[in-house]
TrEMBL record:
Main location: membrane
Domain DUF2179, residue spans: 226-278
A Pfam match: DUF2179
Membrane topology recorded in Swiss-Prot or TrEMBL: Multi-pass membrane protein
Keyword terms, alphabetized: Cell membrane, Membrane, Transmembrane, Transmembrane helix
Protein name according to UniProt: YitT family protein
Record carries keyword Transmembrane helix: yes
Length: 318
């Protein structure tokens, strides 16, 4: 157990350093020198730096502005996005913004701003996606997006894209609409990269045709903790009755569902389709954890009662 925990922690630290480096490279080597804006608070920090340079002649470090933004956002995340998530995200933001201050602002793509937008967006999307996958974020707007996503179940990439629309409009006003279009390209690629890597909250609907519906449904409800609808069905080819189980689950639960179903009924037919939207009674991870905890506690109480009865019976017989 200790070795497993140490291994997971080591991987998380590697992801921490790797993602921080990607963010710093995206900002200093692609976005800032080409006057293309990142999404979230990174983009807002770029706008503030341009504003102070144009109005007051001050050259503020974008990394320093991002670092300042990170402090009040951490308080929001502490309450709404989870403490461990917020601490790791806060430290990651400090690390990446510190690297931005230390690294030079120089473009790796000369006279090709569209490439700057594409590669900057890709690096930023990879950084955000892998951090979310390992339980934290790059800080800033990611913490806000995670808090909203936790309450609504919406895609993190979708939420970030919606918030960044205001940044594009302001950027177009200040630096021209051509650079704003490059900004849109970068933000779009970031969104695609995030949702390609961080698939945890993508929803799927599974249809399971089986002759052992009760056993499969019980096992899935205990392990995956999802609601299941059982519908009677009839095989047109076999001319035999069966049952079809319908359940909505997250993409990260798909493999567990398939393995569990096939372990009970190897002949089960599974059809999985994408789900666009669900109602409010789709369990999130917190509710799933709560249900699992309640089940374990109830089982422990039952076992304790059985042990007491068994001890009393032995005492009586003696």
């Amino acid at each position: 157990m200790a070795k497993t925990h140490l291994r997971e922690y080591s991987i998380k630290v590697i992801v921490f350093v790797f993602s921080g480096l990607l963010v710093a490279m995206a900002m200093n080597f692609f976005y800032i020198p080409n006057k293309i804006f990142s999404g979230g608070f990174n983009g807002i920090a770029q706008l503030i730096a341009l504003f102070f340079h144009a109005i007051f002649g001050l050259n503020l470090q974008v990394g320093a502005i991002i670092m300042a933004f990170n402090i009040p956002i951490a308080f929001v995340g502490w309450k709404w996005a989870g403490r461990e998530f917020t601490v790791w995200s806060f430290l990651q933001n400090l690390f990446s913004s510190g690297l931005q201050i230390l690294l030079p602002e120089t473009s790796l793509v000369h006279s090709e701003p569209i490439l700057a937008g594409m590669f900057g967006g890709l690096l930023m999307g990879i950084a955000i996606g892998v951090t979310f996958k390992f339980g934290f974020s790059t800080g800033g707007m990611d913490i806000v997006a995670a808090a909203v996503q936790k309450a609504s179940g919406k895609s993190i990439g979708f939420i970030t894209l919606f918030i960044n629309a205001a940044i594009v409009l302001i950027a177009g006003t200040f630096i021209g609409w051509q650079n704003a279009m490059y900004t849109i390209i970068g933000i779009y690629i970031t969104t695609i990269a995030i949702d390609s890597i961080h698939t945890r909250y993508q929803k799927l609907t599974a249809f399971i045709v089986t002759k052992r519906s009760s056993e499969v449904a019980k096992a899935l409800q205990e392990s995956v903790v999802r609601g299941i609808t059982i519908m009677p069905s009839f095989g047109a080819y076999t001319q035999e009755p069966s049952s079809t189980l319908m359940m909505v689950l997250s993409r990260y639960e798909l493999r567990e569902m398939e393995l569990l179903t096939k372990s009970i009924d190897p002949d089960a037919f599974i059809n999985v389709i994408n789900t666009v939207e669900t109602s409010n009674n789709f369990l999130n991870e917190d509710l799933q954890s709560q249900i699992r905890f309640e089940r374990v506690a109830a089982q422990a109480q039952l076992n304790e009662a059985l042990n007491l009865d068994e001890a009393a019976e032995k005492f009586k017989n003696n």
